[in-house]
Design brief:
Blueprint lengths: L2 H15 L2 H12 L3 H10 L6 H9 L7 H13 L6 H7 L17 H17 L8 E12 L5 E12 L4 E9 L10 E6 L2 E8 L4 E12 L4 E9 L8 E6 L5 E8 L7 E7 L6 E7 L7 E6 L5 E8 L2
Parallel strand pairs: 1-9
Antiparallel strand pairs: 1-2, 2-7, 3-6, 4-7, 5-6, 8-13, 9-12, 10-11, 10-13
Protein name: XRE family transcriptional regulator
Organism: Streptomyces antibioticus
Amino acid sequence: MSAVSALTAELDTVLRSGPFHVALRAAIAARGLPLQRVQHHLSRYGVKVGVTSLSYWQQGARRPQRPESLRAVRALEEILHLPDESLIRLLADTDTRDQDTTGQPASRSYRSLLEAGDALERLLAELECPPDDGLHTLGHHERVRIGGRRELKHRESQHIVRAHRDGVDRFVAVHHGDPGCTPERMTVHALENCRTGRIRRHHGTGVLVAELLFDTRLRAGDTFLFRYAVEDGTAGASREYVRGFGAAGGQYALQVRFDGGALPLRCHRFTQHSPAAPRGGRQELPLSDHHRSVHLVEPRVRSGMVGIGWEWE
């Protein structure tokens, strides 16, 4: 068998079985394209992806997760002459791995996060929200309240931001409810130094986005503090709260408080590089007897995800 035939046979096999990074690496090798040429072809599709990111993807060090990255994967299917949805399907196949030791879902499936990412992109487009909102987060403090039915009842966020360009006068908040939630029944409250603007919801994925309008236009270098809340309580038992960060930023603090009639067996914090990556940084969190709460503090956030999970009896 020639070297080309061997590469083609390997590609056919891994496109059926995965994993994603092996299939991508095999597809690039079968076409004989250096990563710089792959990047060039992607730019012709209007998609910007760095050579370093492509290298990480084919090594399995990172997985595409942002809407722009998923557009790149679909473009790669054309550039590398692959069947439609062949690489996207391998990304979604991680659904079956998202189980904890109890057999309960440890997190939303990768497929559901892909769908939520697409829905979020459409909602942000409706609000004419650019990729760069002009704000750098100095501090973000969240308080989550779990109700007597074990549901995610309430979330309050306080942001301290600094503008890095002139004219910024709003922030677009994103809330992703638990599976089975009803975004139409959620409400958004502007609590301090802001007022609510347009609100968009996507029922199928439980995504809600809301404009929070400032009473002033910030100049580059100005700092600003604002606070808002989302009343949810529309889904079943909640098992975790996760916050994702697209880039490095300032301090992040998360507190989860439980109803006195619905206390978890145990709680833990965790980190995750991306929705498809394995979870790490697990640390047990003691539940405060008096305040029925647990918390975590990240002095300086990095790109990725951090959250608190808990187990019910």
